[in-house]
Amino acid sequence: MSDNAIYDVAIVGYGPVGATFANLLAKYGLRILVVEQAAAPYDKPRAITIDHEVLRVFQACGLEDTIAKHTVPHPGTHYLGIDRQIIKKFDPMPPPFPLGWTPTATFVQPEFEAALRKKFAAYGNADVLLSTQAVDVAQDKDGVTLKVKNADGAQTFRARYLVACDGANSFVRKALGIAFDDLAFDEWWMVVDALDHHATERPPKCFQYCWPSRPGTFLPGPGALRRWEIKILPGEDPAAFGQPDNVTKVLKAFTDPSKLEIWRSAVYRFHALLAQRWQDGRILLMGDAVHQTPPFLGQGLSAGVRDAVNLAWKLALVLRGDAAPSVIETYAEERKPHVSALVALAKEFGLIIGELDEAKARARDAKLLEELNAGTAQTNRQKFIPDLASGLIATGAPAAGTLFPQPEVDTEQGPKRLDDTLAPEFLIAAASSDALKALTPDSLALWSKLRGQLLVIEETGSLFSGWLNQHGIVAAVVRPDRAVYGGARTADELNALVASLAKQLKN
Ligand SMILES: Cc1cc2nc3c(=O)[nH]c(=O)nc-3n(C[C@H](O)[C@H](O)[C@H](O)COP(=O)(O)OP(=O)(O)OC[C@H]3O[C@@H](n4cnc5c(N)ncnc54)[C@H](O)[C@@H]3O)c2cc1C
Known about the structure:
Elements: E1 6-12, H1 16-26, E2 32-35, E3 49-51, H2 52-60, H3 64-70, E4 71-73, E5 77-80, E6 86-90, E7 104-107, H4 109-121, E8 126-129, E9 133-139, E10 144-150, E11 153-164, H5 171-175, E12 180-195, E13 206-209, E14 216-220, E15 225-231, H6 238-241, H7 244-251, E16 261-275, E17 279-280, E18 283-285, E19 291-292, H8 300-319, H9 329-353, H10 358-374, E20 408-409, E21 416-417, E22 427-430, H11 433-437, H12 441-449, E23 453-456, H13 463-471, E24 475-478, E25 484-488, H14 491-506
Parallel strand pairs: 1-2, 1-11, 2-8, 5-13, 11-18, 22-23
Antiparallel strand pairs: 3-7, 4-7, 5-6, 9-10, 10-11, 12-15, 12-16, 13-14, 14-15, 16-19, 17-18, 20-21, 22-24, 24-25
Helix pairs in contact: 1-4, 1-8, 8-9
The structure holds flavin-adenine dinucleotide.
Residues 12-18, 35-38, 42, 46-50, 133-134, 165-168, 171, 191, 268, 287-288, 295, 298-302, 304 line the site of flavin-adenine dinucleotide (FAD).
């Protein structure tokens, strides 16, 4: 691209969220600039758990092979109390899997970051500048000016929109003077990734060791990867705690380290933070730049990937003139309460795991055990993930704001996951052609203007028909990010949904 090109979108930060967002935008053919201050991806242990929504987004980025090689289904989690008894459980959700992927998986983050960058490198309409730091942003009514610095000196670029994916210390967030709401969680933990080459089988569970003497977490990753997260107690020095000889010493409380090869370890300060604003005119922020969560629900990166898939299609529609710029405001409107609920929950689980007072821990064990035995404890982790409650959805319509299922469908090339047969555009999906035949000429004209797809789903199983029955609907209007705009019980309702969507997009 020429040096003077005006980009559609400039992305600051090429971490996992920036790389996912870049790939999603590329599907719309946009001109993209990515600037990243580091020469290579971050090499310390971070995310190890992802959920099916994220796997579906990675599918959209073309990462099926990486998913096959570098993820395994999450085995479920047991919380162990002081006397090592099980006090709380999360079980894996049984099949059929609604989104076409195992509901939760453990994965190897560096492999995904490399795969995302490789996919994006194959896209011709972009410039990626590594070892290049964003140092100034300014905006006017037409676009954003980004100043960067690298070994060659300073350069200035123009873009219609700028999206900050620049992590917890976000330069862009600070430059815009955006403050965090602090949800009051502040703990030091050490994270150790080790390789267990001697294991004959994968440990059957993740464990949360809710032990006041030394709280910790264990997760078996794919292949030989094993993860321990260990709380650093008040009075302990985080820097000294993270020294290699201490890593092995501390691990002894949880496992026999002599059989392990320590791959990498790091000391982190876990926070629960939510930025007050996620948009400033033509500048938007996502990922750790606007939310940070303790990792106890495995939702930090997942939340960032949800941000990316939520914003990508909205920006694309606005940039090609199919939606009013105000539609972009629904990004924060939809994402902020969603993340807020998950950060609050992760904090709650963190407080359960990290209790240091023995008397309080015993009371906690008794209460959780009673809930578990009475069957009143929620043991399905996916049930904690909220639906969209407002924003660009037909609030009040059946299924509005839920995630559209991903059935396997029959195609001429054999069975495929539904999304692999679709463009990243709006979709009206029905189980029979009757519902689609009832669309009025007005609805059809609007639909074609939006580049929407119409589909009678011919599935190999009964996931989609079961979902329609569950909501009592005959068809659904589905957004490009596969959130449901609304379900329709009748032809009139379907036409009304199309009309209200068109209105919301042009508001
Ligand atoms: C121990 C631990 C365990 C975790 N476990 C999980 C888990 O199991 N599941 C989960 O979903 N999440 C988990 N997370 C959270 C997850 O790792 C993060 O949410 C995720 O990595 C954030 O991605 P990001 O792209 O937003 O930010 P980052 O990965 O921080 O990327 C930001 C990028 O921006 C670049 N950058 C910064 N400033 C500039 C600048 N001025 N100019 C140019 N580039 C810049 C940085 O170099 C970096 O590459 C965990 C985190 C930790 C620490």
